[in-house]
UniProtKB/TrEMBL annotation:
Residues passing through the membrane, by range: none
Protein name: 4-vinyl reductase
GO molecular function ontology, one term from the record: DNA-binding transcription factor activity
Gene3D superfamilies listed in its UniProt record: Trafficking protein particle complex subunit 3, Winged helix-like DNA-binding domain superfamily/Winged helix DNA-binding domain
Length: 268
């Protein structure tokens, strides 16, 4: 839908100061760089909205917003349906999935050699090379200002669904103990239950972020996705795993609040 161009107007590498959101759609990937469209899509990711709400949020003329919506709908990024209260009006929603964001402000300066240097060939740890590869890829992307959190979160959810039968338990305490054992057995980190209402999990030696540079923001989208899927299955309703502390925020652990999205207490 939108693409960076070089000095001759041909598609090329995006400008250095350009912020881009990348969406996947049934018709393929779509890059959104226009700030008005990115604002509209951010609002639609929160919930469906009417045309009037979008105009108010975008702060642009109705005709301008209408053009943006038409072009994004044609690209498959958004969709619409008739308003049940007024068939003359439409309600808009996001039809594509946010995959990644590219922002020059998110670039980090970090020495990749340190990751390779920490790897001990022949150490006997079969997972060491894969941890090295995962962290190196993450940092390489971070150096370019590419954030894959939405994609990593969805990948984590898929894995969480597959893992659930291996850790399922009717009682929440036993369920958490099973998750902690799985994490430790696979060297993903050490999990402790810090609080029960709401449920708070602390992860030490987190495989996803323990060696990442400090950026001031949570980095464990993959773990969050796994925990979201596990606890959604356990509680039988959508449940968020919100990361409030992280190694990449300067802490010596990661902290997740497990909160059912309907607001009801999830302990069992």
């Amino acid at each position: 839908m939108e693409q960076g161009t070089n000095s001759r107007g041909r598609p090329g590498r995006p400008k250095a100061n350009l912020e881009i959101d990348l969406y996947s759609t049934p018709a393929g990937a779509r890059a959104v760089e226009n700030p008005v469209r990115r604002t509209i899509l951010a609002a639609l990711r929160e919930r469906e909205r009417t045309f009037e709400e979008i105009v108010s949020l975008a702060g642009r003329a109705k005709s301008t917003v209408s053009v943006h919506l038409q072009e994004m709908a044609a690209a498959g990024v958004i969709g619409s349906r008739a308003d049940p209260d007024d068939s003359r009006k439409k309600i808009f929603f996001v039809a594509g999935d946010l995959v990644a964001s590219v922002s020059p402000d998110e670039r980090v300066a970090d020495a990749l050699a340190a990751y390779a240097g920490a790897y001990q060939a022949g150490s006997g740890d079969p997972n060491a090379f894969y941890r090295l590869a995962f962290r190196t890829i993450r940092v390489s992307l971070m150096q370019e200002g590419v954030l894959l959190d939405p994609l990593l979160s969805r990948a984590g959810e898929r894995i969480g669904d597959e893992l659930y039968p291996a850790v399922a338990a009717p009682e929440t305490g036993a369920f958490c103990a099973n998750i902690a054992r799985l994490w430790e057995e696979h060297r993903l980190g050490r999990i402790e239950v810090a609080e029960t209402e709401p449920l708070v999990l602390l992860v030490y030696d987190c495989f996803e972020c323990a060696d990442l540079p400090v950026t001031g923001r949570p980095a464990c989208a993959f773990d969050s996705g796994i925990l979201r899927a596990l606890f959604s299955r356990h509680y039988g309703r959508p449940t968020a795993a919100v990361e409030t502390r992280c190694y990449s925020m300067g802490f010596n652990h990661c902290r997740f609040e497990v909160v059912p999205e309907d607001g009801r207490n999830g302990t069992g």
